[in-house]
Design a protein that fits this description.
The protein has 239 residues and is α/β, with parallel strands linked by helices. The chain contains eight helices and twelve strands. Strands 1-3-2-4-5-6 form a six-stranded mixed beta sheet, with helices on both faces. It has a four-stranded antiparallel beta sheet with strand order 7-8-9-10, covered by helices on one side. A two-stranded antiparallel ribbon has the order 11-12.
């Protein structure tokens, strides 16, 4: 089970599936969208996460190794775990009977595998808007660095920073993963939107562009972790 942080007020989503490849894929996509995400790979683990993490949405597989997704939802309702948490079922079980059972138990949406990540994100956003109002704050902040997703404005302190669209996407991705180390391949996949088999020096080039525009205005924020990747983090404060 892993935890990642986005903005402090970002909606919390729990992803439950016994296939780690699916939880990794969905969690990465939702974190890229600015959501806080935890994952669980079994039903009882999911119930524990709901009690502790207090998610605002659960993406729930039906076929789990201990409890089924339907049983998880039944126990959530019976025991009052987490209050009224909306649930999006994500499962290979595509019969009409299964779909009707999911909705009858209180599920908010039902998607079948194989699925489109883009469609999943749209449905997650729709549920969050419907149940909780606004999805998340469009403003990301790390130290004195601020990025506004809607206006595409970036400031360091009182200084406005002009970025190209690619530089903005790269900075956005780094800020969504503040404190975490992201590899070149992860950056290429999320910023350039395809599997990149060519020269990965393009990442180094754009990191250098950002450093010239951002780190020149204050304490260093963008760090290289040799042999691993890059990390954006707030400067340490001296007591």
């Amino acid at each position: 089970m892993t935890t990642a942080t986005a903005t402090a007020d970002a909606p919390r989503v729990l992803v439950v599936d016994d296939e780690r490849s699916i939880t990794d894929l969905v969690a990465m996509a939702l974190r890229y969208e600015g959501l806080q995400v935890e994952v669980a790979n079994a039903g009882r683990q999911a119930l524990e996460c709901i009690s502790r993490f207090r998610p605002q949405l659960v993406v729930l597989d039906v076929m789990l190794p201990d409890l089924s997704g339907f049983e998880v939802l039944e126990r959530m309702a019976r025991d009052g775990i987490g209050g009224r948490v909306p649930v999006l079922f994500l499962t290979a079980r595509d019969t009409l009977e299964d779909k009707l059972r999911g909705f009858t138990l209180g599920g908010d949406d039902y998607m079948t595998k194989p699925f489109s990540v883009e469609e999943l994100i749209v449905r997650v956003r729709a549920i969050l808007r419907r149940v909780h109002g606004e999805g998340h704050s469009p403003r990301l902040t790390v130290g004195d660095l601020e990025l506004d997703e809607e206006s595409h404005e970036v400031y360091r302190g009182d200084t406005s920073i002009e970025l190209t669209p690619t530089e903005f996407k790269l900075l956005h991705y780094l800020m969504l993963n503040t404190g975490r180390v992201v590899s070149k391949s992860q950056i290429l996949d999320r910023v350039w939107n395809y599997d990149f088999d060519g020269n990965a020096n393009v990442v180094e080039i754009y990191i250098s562009y950002l450093r010239k525009k951002i780190d020149s205005l204050g304490p260093r924020l963008i760090h290289t972790v040799r042999g691993v990747g890059y990390s954006l983090r707030a400067p340490r404060t001296t007591p």
